Amino acid sequence: MKTSNELKSLVQEKYGEIALQNKETNAASCCGAGPVSGKVYSIMADEYKDLDGYANDADLGLGCGLPTEFAKIQEGDTVIDLGSGAGNDAFIARHETGASGKVIGIDFTPTMIEKARLNAEKLGYNNVEFRQGDIEHMPVADNTADVIVSNCVLNLVPNKEAVINEVFRVIKPGGHFSISDIVLLGDLPEAFQKDAEMYAGCISGAMQKDDYLNALKNAGFQNISIQKEKAIILPDDILQAYLNEEEIAAFAQREHGIFSITVYAEKAGEKQKKSLQDLSTVDTACCVPGTPGGCC
């Protein structure tokens, strides 16, 4: 079994490569990793094109849900997107939060950050920023976000409980998240569990569904609910890279499986209402007449 640092290096290297692949290649594989199916166009990704704020150049076909569709983002909100990739979910969140809000994307891979920043510049968005960082230790202050979204990322992180605790830390009291991810019911074949590409492909690093939901509860989240759930069906031409015919037949007959779930949860507390004064607040100390270096 690889160490935590080895897994992080694997993900960073692989997603640096995935950032340069086209959407079709990524969508017809397991999150852009491993063999590409010639039978199925999209194994995990859902279609974003009908969502307001969609930017084609930012869609790498890497998600397993549509968390921003369910995230209940309001105008003026501060939104954090975990594993922001080329910026797809961040830009859709920006449409919802408007010019008075703010969106912060966090990603571990420098190539993804570069693509996202270029996309934001092309779109002229000055209230969307992208920070390179490890979501086990987010480069964000406590109680920053009204809403957190994430799409098929937690399964890639070695210490999932650390990420969940970080999510709790950076959400404001009364805030919430909507996160899409891969979870399991039952054990995977041993060949999947040992394969690095199946880890980078969002499969072998996934948690058991009950463990995932319990981890959210243990972190202190409340009103936890599943907003959407779908089975992930791996086509035979993908399975053949890992399993023999007998193992494929057994895999097809298993009682449990691989699922994408979009989960909503809240942090206790009363959400602060935004006023026009809040949205236009300036540093009054800097604007006192006669202040040296004043900004007025």
Oligomer: single chain
Residue stretches low in confidence (pLDDT < 50, at least 5 long) are: 276-296
Fraction of residues in β-strands: 15-25%
- Computed over alpha carbons, the radius of gyration is 20 Å
| Biggest sheet details | 8 strands, mixed
Q: What is the CA-CA span between the terminal residues?
A: 59 Å
Named at the architecture level, the CATH assignment is 3-Layer(aba) Sandwich
Shape: globular
The CATH C-level class name: Alpha Beta
Overview in brief:
With 296 residues, the chain is of the alpha/beta class.
Describe this structure in words.
- Strand 2, helix 5 (110-123) and strand 3 (128-132) form a beta-alpha-beta unit.
- Strands 1, 2, 3, 4, 5, 6, 7 and 8 form an 8-stranded mixed beta sheet that branches.
- The protein is an alpha/beta fold and 296 residues long.
- The model is unreliable at 276-296 (pLDDT under 50).
- It has helices spanning 4-18, 23-27, 67-70, 88-97, 110-123, 160-170, 190-194, 196-200, 209-219, 236-239, 245-252, 276-279, and strands spanning 78-82, 102-107, 128-132, 145-151, 171-185, 207-208, 222-231, 257-266.
- The protein has a single domain (4-269), classed as Rossmann fold.
Give me some keywords for this one.
296 residues; alpha/beta; Rossmann fold; 8-stranded mixed beta sheet; 8 strands; 32% helix; globular; disordered C terminus
Outline the secondary-structure elements.
Blueprint lengths: L3 H15 L4 H5 L39 H4 L7 E5 L5 H10 L4 E6 L2 H14 L4 E5 L12 E7 L8 H11 E15 L4 H5 L1 H5 L6 E2 H11 L2 E10 L4 H4 L5 H8 L4 E10 L9 H4 L17
Parallel strand pairs: 1-2, 1-4, 2-3, 4-5, 5-6
Antiparallel strand pairs: 5-8, 7-8
